[in-house]
Specification:
By secondary structure, the chain is mainly α. The chain has helices at 14-27, 33-37, 43-56, 87-113. The relative contact order is 0.18. The mean pLDDT is 88.
Length: 114
């Protein structure tokens, strides 16, 4: 009798993972448009770079907690730096922060055009 194979779990694509993380940031963390609009110094983009660098260029020594350190220009407190051991999760966080920065700039340009 042939063995039945388990159905494979459908993997989500990167855009879906990023969209879901951005929605989580908004709904669970409260990082809505008004909050993001306060980051006029491209802090959202700088934070994205730190999460990206945690994947592509991790600090071999880590910080005092054994995790990779953020980039030298991490825009917020040490407590806000929450890298994952999973490189995909760090890339998803970076992507969601980039999406937030794009949205902020689009709102800013839309306001300026009026």
């Amino acid at each position: 009798m042939p063995r039945k194979s388990k159905p494979q779990k459908q993997l989500k694509d990167g855009a879906t993972l990023i969209r879901e993380e951005r929605l989580r940031q908004i709904m669970e963390e409260g990082y809505r448009a008004a909050h993001d609009d306060g980051h006029r110094g491209f802090e959202l983009g700088l934070a994205a770079v730190s999460y990206l660098n945690a994947v592509v260029s991790p600090d071999e020594e880590g910080d005092e907690h054994g995790k990779v350190r953020p980039c030298w220009d991490w825009p917020w407190s040490k407590e806000d730096w929450k890298p994952s051991d999973d490189p995909i999760r760090n890339l998803v966080k970076a992507g969601a922060l980039i999406a937030a920065e794009i949205d902020r700039l689009q709102r800013l340009n839309g306001k300026a055009a009026k």
